[in-house]
Design brief:
With 378 residues, this protein is an alpha+beta fold. The chain has 3 domains: 114 residues, Butyryl-Coa Dehydrogenase, subunit A, domain 1, CATH 1.10.540; 106 residues, Butyryl-CoA Dehydrogenase, subunit A, domain 2; 146 residues, Butyryl-CoA Dehydrogenase, subunit A, domain 3 (Up-down Bundle). The strands form 3 sheets. It has a 4-stranded mixed β-sheet with strand order 1-4-5-8, covered by helices on one side. β2 and β3 form a beta hairpin. α4 packs antiparallel against α5, α6 runs parallel beside α8 and α8 packs antiparallel against α10. It is globular and about 80 Å long. 46% of the residues are buried. The site of flavin-adenine dinucleotide (FAD) has 23 residues, from α4, β1, β3 and α10.
């Protein structure tokens, strides 16, 4: 156990040093361009921070303990670096391919993903709606050794930069709410195009784009898993994706609370620090308590996940609770910064804008409450 803790501590130290040295100096430029530099991915890969849970046989780090992924996320948040693109590449797509790919597919795709030579994305949401994952309109029709794909996807993280995209497509129109498959669509496949990076209000250091497939020819060898089992695969992968979003939520809430605490001790009004007013002390005491509860809840979820005991409903509950809390903390902390909090480049301002997406992607709070209430027999 002690050795394991030492490993985690060393890993944290190496993430922190790497981000400070290689990433923080460039991050402002990424935010201005709405895009991560391609070179960033290769730097991450060289430092061994990609493919954390992928086996070394396929170029990964073989760290199956989810706490390693948590540490990387926490350090990214502390360094103020845009997170969703890294989570999508590392935590979501690499895990899908590692879990579902054939030996040949893993050899073909994972080493380059782990080295950051190729960037990954996952595309489920469509312009017509994202909440109902069973209602996918992008169609893939089998023609000999190819699928011919027609349709489009919306708001895809890394969509502009991605070389390899796991795309949810409908392969059997006849199956009510089913008949969905996962195809890996690669850069330069004929019939695949994408829009410019979308102008978001937050998380500006990673790109989000629309993808269009017009008679796009995808070899049958790019089918991930079995045909028509896509919905089952989403359900299996969702706990991990939602746990990673909850990790972002808790780490962000802790980080902005600490930052705000320092600010309110320094900033003065009516000849006293603003943190010394009873009203503000009580707000901070309440936030501190709630964030500590969230940390315990998250640690418990991570332990369950590591034991294979973390369910889809557990994931819905923790994502709902931690992301809603994150928004509340972000809002109260911005208020405590006064006018400074409303400045776009202030830490409190950016944190507030970033927090807003968290209750939307990976399942909206409303959809999560549908899942939770169904599990209660309602
Ligand atoms: C920054 C960002 C990054 C993203 N990255 C990705 C990505 O990488 N890949 C990807 O596939 N998608 C991505 N998305 C899309 C995201 O997953 C969807 O926006 C989300 O699932 C909601 O879908 P929608 O936007 O179509 O909203 P809609 O489905 O149109 O929903 C609109 C509103 O209606 C509510 N609603 C829907 N159904 C119900 C119901 N049954 N009861 C009550 N209310 C309901 C929703 O909760 C929401 O409030 C991203 C989005 C953002 C903002």
């Amino acid at each position: 156990m002690r050795i394991e803790t030492e490993n985690l501590d060393n890993y944290r130290k190496s993430c922190r040093e790497f981000l400070k040295r290689e990433i923080v100096p460039d991050h402002q430029a990424w935010e201005e361009n709405g895009l991560m530099e391609r070179s960033f991915w290769e730097k991450l890969g060289k430092s061994g921070l990609l493919g954390i849970s992928v086996s070394p046989e396929f170029g990964g780090q073989g760290k199956h303990d989810y706490r390693f992924a948590v540490i990387l996320t926490e350090e990214l948040i502390k360094a103020g670096v845009t997170v969703p693109g890294i989570v999508a590449h590392n935590d979501v797509v690499a895990s899908y391919i590692f879990a579902l790919g054939t030996g040949e597919q893993k050899k073909r795709w994972l080493p380059e993903l782990c080295l950051g030579k190729r960037v990954a994305a996952i595309a489920m949401t469509e312009p017509g709606g994202g909440s109902n994952t069973a209602d996918i309109k992008t169609v893939a029709e089998r023609q000999g050794d190819y699928y011919v794909v027609n349709g489009s996807k919306a708001y895809i993280t890394n969509g502009f930069n991605a070389d390899l995209i796991v795309v949810a497509v409908k392969t059997d129109e006849g199956q009510q709410g089913q008949g969905i498959s996962l195809l890996v669509i690669e850069r330069d496949m004929p019939g695949f195009s994408r829009g410019e990076p979308l102008k978001k209000i937050g998380w500006n250091g990673s790109d989000t784009a629309e993808l269009v497939f017009h008679d796009c020819k995808v070899p049958v060898t790019n089918l991930l898993g079995r045909e028509n089992l896509g919905n089952y695969y989403f359900m299996s992968a969702m706990p991990r994706e939602r746990l990673s979003i909850s990790t972002v939520a808790v780490a962000s809430a802790e980080n902005i609370l600490q930052h705000t605490l320092e600010y309110v001790k320094e900033r003065k009004a009516f000849n006293q620090s603003i943190g010394s007013f009873q009203y503000n002390r009580f707000i901070l005491a309440q936030l501190d308590t709630e964030v500590k509860i969230a940390r315990i809840y998250l640690d418990n979820a991570i332990a369950l996940f590591n034991q294979g005991l973390f369910s889809l409903v557990d994931a819905a509950r923790i994502k709902l609770w931690t992301t809603e809390l994150q928004m509340k903390v972000a809002d109260r902390c911005l208020q405590l910064h006064g006018g400074m909090g409303y400045m776009r480049d202030s830490i409190a301002g950016k944190n507030w804008l970033n927090s807003r997406a968290q209750t939307i992607y990976g399942g909206t709070s409303e959809v999560l409450q549908e899942i939770i209430s169904k599990s209660m027999g309602l």
